[in-house]
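Shipment paperwork, digital attachment
Item: protein structure file
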Amino acid sequence: MTNTQKNILTIFTFLPLLIFSNGCASKNADGTYNSAYSYHPYNRHRNLGEYISNNHRYQTQRFNSYGSTPIGESIERVAKSLLGRDYQYGATGPYQYDCSGFTKYVFSKNGITLPRTSKDQAKVGQYIRANELQKGDLIFFDSKKSSEVSHVGIYLSRGNFIHASSSKDQVTISNLNSNYYSKHFKWGRRVINMDYARN
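Attachment content:
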């Protein structure tokens, strides 16, 4: 056997091992892989923007906006006009707010009466999952100390929401996909189409 033939035989002998050790696998037409154990950016659940890892029993949700309404646009305008206003526990405006005081004030300017506290606001309207959020929906969070509702904001779009933040000491815009808020998000509530909520 010539040296050239030996080199070719060596290549064909070790090539499958090289491919296997690099974790390469054929990709499906939709960009996913068949292996449940391989991590790859393309291995994502395609429905509702969710990525689910069955091996670690861990789920992250991508928050998207699936539309808006005229009153949702109006709620956004009023809320954004208050950006930078001071956070103050127990305050309901017009110059200082706590989280539920802010949402109550914004919604009142759009003809919608909300309860005073975030816990009570979390009980009114239609329950909304993360992947169903629309502009103007209320969104609720728990905290590191408790699994009960302790914070509320107003969903805008593309994962963004506006709220009176105690950590920022002002009305600000944050993103639900951030590490803290994605872990502590509980649910949304839609009250903008609830007749009983209107003045």
